[in-house]
Amino acid sequence: MRISKSLAVGVAIVVGVSHAQTFQRLGTCPTLGCVFPPDQTDFLAGQYFDIRLEVHAPINGSEANGKQPDEKFTFTIAKEKGKAEPATTYFSIAEPKLERWNFSWYEDLFAKEAGKPSIVNVTSKAYRRVALYEPGEYTATLTYNNGSTTKASWLVRDLQEVRKAKNIIMFIGDGMTTNMITAARLIAHKAINGRYQTKMQMDQFPILGHQMTHSIDSFITDSANSATALYTGHKSTVNCLGVYADSSKDPFDDPKVETIAEMFHRLTGGLVGIVSTAFIADATPAALTAHTRDRGQYGAVVDSFLHGITNYTWTNWTGPDVLFGGGAEQFYDPKLGGKTYLNKDYYSEFSKAGYQVLWNKTSLAKASNDSRALGIFTVSNMAKWLDRNVYKSNLNQSLSPSGDKTAALDQPGLKDMTLKAIDILAKRSGDKGFFLMSEAASIDKMMHVLDYDRALGELLELDDTIKATIAKLKSLNKFKETLIIVTADHGHGFDVMGSVDTKYLAAQNVDRKKRDAVGTYQNSGLSQYANTGNLTYSEGVHFPSNWDPRYTLFQGLMADPDRRENWSVHKDGPRVPAVNITPSADFYANPKDGAGGILLNGTLPVGDDQGVHSLTDVPVFAMGPCQELFGGVYNSIDIFFSMAECFGLARGKGHGQ
Amino acid sequence: MRISKSLAVGVAIVVGVSHAQTFQRLGTCPTLGCVFPPDQTDFLAGQYFDIRLEVHAPINGSEANGKQPDEKFTFTIAKEKGKAEPATTYFSIAEPKLERWNFSWYEDLFAKEAGKPSIVNVTSKAYRRVALYEPGEYTATLTYNNGSTTKASWLVRDLQEVRKAKNIIMFIGDGMTTNMITAARLIAHKAINGRYQTKMQMDQFPILGHQMTHSIDSFITDSANSATALYTGHKSTVNCLGVYADSSKDPFDDPKVETIAEMFHRLTGGLVGIVSTAFIADATPAALTAHTRDRGQYGAVVDSFLHGITNYTWTNWTGPDVLFGGGAEQFYDPKLGGKTYLNKDYYSEFSKAGYQVLWNKTSLAKASNDSRALGIFTVSNMAKWLDRNVYKSNLNQSLSPSGDKTAALDQPGLKDMTLKAIDILAKRSGDKGFFLMSEAASIDKMMHVLDYDRALGELLELDDTIKATIAKLKSLNKFKETLIIVTADHGHGFDVMGSVDTKYLAAQNVDRKKRDAVGTYQNSGLSQYANTGNLTYSEGVHFPSNWDPRYTLFQGLMADPDRRENWSVHKDGPRVPAVNITPSADFYANPKDGAGGILLNGTLPVGDDQGVHSLTDVPVFAMGPCQELFGGVYNSIDIFFSMAECFGLARGKGHGQ
């Protein structure tokens, strides 16, 4: 966390915006003149970025001032105490053309209810693909409306350019919190008299940190926004991938920032691998190469994996060496029902670019380590560990990655994908090294649907994957040159408060009586998931020996839709806690879910059918070169800067280069 | 976390106990022969402890075997592969007399509902005040019932005896989790574009760790149990202070373990300070000197502060040099309504022992640093920061520490007490150093009653106290010789999921419509507690500038009684979420609480009127000598061993000494 020396800038900006909360005109722009990147932005020396300027003229609402949006605004850059130069001079680029648009927003819920939006006219310019090289503080100044100014204090961090790690493997447990790690440990590792007999791999990391996930314009983040912070060092807005959110309607014209994957590849020629258990166009994998205001542009995201950004001059991107995950519907031919970018067959596109195309665990295992590989193993998100390993009949759905509507029965897990990715990257990268992001995506997805068992299963699979990764790196003699980071992108408000006697719960007929099944404090007893039977105490693979004990965890989220809670494993596949059973958009407890449980009214808006993200700082575990950079408490963006420092990616070539 | 080499011991013990969960015959004794300290116990070399042996003969229930409890059981100790010797020989002590008793328990909730307890006859012996000196593994073996054995694997940790810190200050935020720290930061520290402009003191600590709070016989702990783990290195049972729980009815005969305060004082002559915002006989302060199965023995706890344990030979304890907190009713004369040990006036008792007796902030400030001091500032728990500083009229209650039923208006805060404690300890300790425990008790107490604002206020006061402590130590030139640890004893399942438009909430008449007031993700917006007005960005004292903004935090616990939630500050004092409004013991939402909010049904048993503790690992922040011992993830007991190592308290004098 940096404390800016130019504090007055921030104070001036913040005053007067306290009225806008649930909705904001434009989150990072409380005044009528907007600069992106905004105040308090840090850059890696030499990192590409776009600049977007906007001048707002509210036509109605509390900010209306009767003015037209200024067409003659000016913009300057000054380093430290130096002279302020026009951006065109400073960056040696042509003056961009003036753009115009308008947008509307609601000032609060009453305005929304009354159907009274506020309309804003906008003038704007965008300076594309610039960079700052010399470390130090800069002031960017937008002057508009006859002398009003918006100043942004920018800092180019002064980082060493020496490379300390050859490879970085970044594990992201999507939505994973310390609370969930604690619960996963409880169900998979045996304790005797308060002592765990085996350790989670994460618990054995030498360095622990916490990262703050607060996004740029709201304190709760989504996975797009938070992935952008982790990969670029730039906080952003919900739904943004690798851009700051401007107010225009075009989802592809927002000001971009270069990602760790793009910089690493551009500057060192190092290889990039992307692995996720989500559909591969989902936010966490997408944010490594995509640049859009709208994370829902899945087809374009898949295209950007392969071709990078093509609508503006950007960086030289030639595709990751490994791309493994789900989401076949964004790849296969639209004739089969695919929903692809420009109606192309992306299996064919990747194949033409030299990729092996893999559709199942068997072909993954057999794939060559010499060629680039695309592995797409299912339609939608990949099957969960619990369904692949315990409740296997749930795999019988029409989700084949080929698009032929058969079942995707032979899906790999995160461990299979990650180990193969390392094999390929290690073989192909030679002296150049690699960056691999491996995401346990369904911790988040299963927490969203209140399916705690499946979420914890995914977390345990992540831990097992990390353990196997360390062994793999050692077997390849690459352990000492590889930094391993394990973190999350945000939390869910989850904890465990005791145990539930599910037999007693089911035997009661009245909700208030069912609550007696809950055991807290001394009545929580011991975990029945791992403490039954003659489990051995090996340091091997650890998952619960019994997912369906009589005494389950009294666990949950804190922000929920209406639901019926029986605190038992959902054997018939991922949970659906709430359903729309009225003509309205209202969700009620799913009558097919939580049999015998307690009917609980939710706290979230009734249009929500699942849980939401939470505020909490999330843990960071680090091991390897530069591990010392990841201890203590810091901002999410610091993870980008620490990874970039470890790779030696700063390029202080001097002004204008 | 230690992985025992003698694994078979643990496996043998655990099999067959999976039926007992909500209730257990005796948590640490799944077989019919019980050894305390039980299997998997670690000791500091030279630490005093008692041994309790029990043989159980269940008369009825699933374990009944028709036997009488064995009177001729034997007990041996063996070091490593050495010869097993009778305990009397090993410790050179006389054979204790045989004791007998019986107790009853319920096998599960159905048995409880049917009123069918299981009765157990017991024979027992206790060996008092022994110690193990030589580092290494020991096996303690109870042989009973003609050859059945219960083996306990004990380890005396091999720690250096070199003292590295002169002083240790241990801050305990009772019930404090990472999630709460994140929320407190949000309401008290201003953020601009996702960057906090100031830092919490905790966030600036160089070392971060997580401790697992799992207790010895249940996975959820209470504060007595967890404080025992932190202060003695021995996990225990809910409600236990400095003892393992045996099955006898006497709350004072359970096997004791020596605490860090007792060892530090006995071995080095160093001084001890105890500060808490709770009533001072509450679990967290009490566990430093009290030894009882029942944390509710408040009078005896107060006596033990002064006299130590007197019913058995124990350690030479002459009282702390500083004892500051609430709970006057356990001190003043029973004629005034006091509830004291043996009906004595404990102000008089402490005064006779040379203590200054202080009743308010004014006298605290004026107190001499040359004499020991007892400061008792109110009946019950001390006033909360929010009431002392913002809603002051709530102090008008009959809580004077004198017992005269006037109001306790002039109460100090945690900072006042802690700084004065340091002044006294620093002045009086000379070369001997001091150990100070300072507890922000009402983080927990306010989370229990779902009063999130007050809980976060207490957390911020703790942070402010830590900051002031560092400055104080520097001013006394004692900073470099002092280890500062900040941690918690357990969690509460709390998080923040967004914001609430309280104006919109109040304007709706239907619960399902009220839920639209909740803003998640991008609609969470920015904190309105700290981001309003011209707050300066100093590194000074940080509390919210506005506790009652229109847009509040959408925050809460995950295990609740029935309640009405309006997510607004409780201006008329600490919250009472549920009340008993029927002739039964059932609690319902308090009709006077949460006006205009959403009525929410709870999940806890309806006899509960407040929230409960949670499972989550809690954070540990360390700064100073030995700070490196506190990074990463470890067991709660490791905090005791690391503090003892830092003080050099291990005493490997050799066998039998």
UniProtKB/TrEMBL annotation, chains A, B:
Keywords: Magnesium, Metal-binding, Signal, Zinc
Pfam families: Alk_phosphatase
Residues forming the catalytic site: S223 (phosphoserine intermediate)
Cofactor(s) listed: Mg(2+); Zn(2+)
Sequence positions that bind Zn(2+): D174, D444, H448, D489, H490, H613
GO molecular function per UniProt: alkaline phosphatase activity; metal ion binding
Keyword Transmembrane helix: no
Class of this enzyme: hydrolase
Segment forming the signal sequence: 1-20
Transmembrane segments: none
Enzyme Commission (EC) number: 3.1.3.1
Record-stated family: Belongs to the alkaline phosphatase family.
Name of the protein described by the UniProt record: alkaline phosphatase
Organism the protein comes from: Clohesyomyces aquaticus
